[in-house]
Structures are given as structure tokens and as C-alpha cells.
Amino acid sequence: MDMSSSRTRDFEFHGNAREWFGIWIVNLLLSIVTLGIYSAWAKVRARKYFYQNTYVADRNFDYHATGLQILIGRWFSTHPSSGSRIEAIEEFLEKR
Description:
The protein is mainly alpha-helical. It is 55% helix and 8% strand. It is built from four helices and three strands, in the order βααββαα. The protein has helices at residues 17-33, 39-52, 67-78, 86-95; strands at residues 11-13, 54-56, 59-60. The chain has a three-stranded antiparallel beta sheet. The radius of gyration is 19 Å and the shape is extended. 3% of the residues are buried. The mean pLDDT is 88.
């Protein structure tokens, strides 16, 4: 590959500290009040904020996971014997 034809693109971040602090404090308080259950949704809010405010070549990123997906993933990673309950969870998700 000819190096003279390759172009580099810079990352740009368009967020600000005040907006991030608001998201962070709400996430922290709700995670404490719900004994950590909200932390899955807090993770989504934080990642969405950073991804949607990060640009390359005038295009931003996006984050597509949901809090429920993360919560279910955490459940299965900490309860490996729960594999037999996958059908019940799939039925629950289909009914939503």
C-alpha cells in the first residue's frame, strides 16, 4: 500500500463536563437506590453519551445495547447454572 495515498482522520469529542456530570450523578444515585440493578442502564447511558459525542470524519458513533440485555448478560455470567432457563427468558422477551 502506498503510504502517500493513505489519510489519517482525527477523533473529535463534542461532549462537555456539565452534561457528563449530570449523567454520572443520576446514574450513581439510581444505582445506589436500586442496589445496583440500575447500573446496567447506567452503563448504556454513559456509553451512548460518549459514543454519540465522538466523531470521525464528521460522523458519530452509536451504542445499541439495552439495559435489559446487559442485565441478562450479567445474570448468566454470574449464574452459569441458569442456562436451562434460557427458554423462559426468550419467551418473556418475545411477549414484550
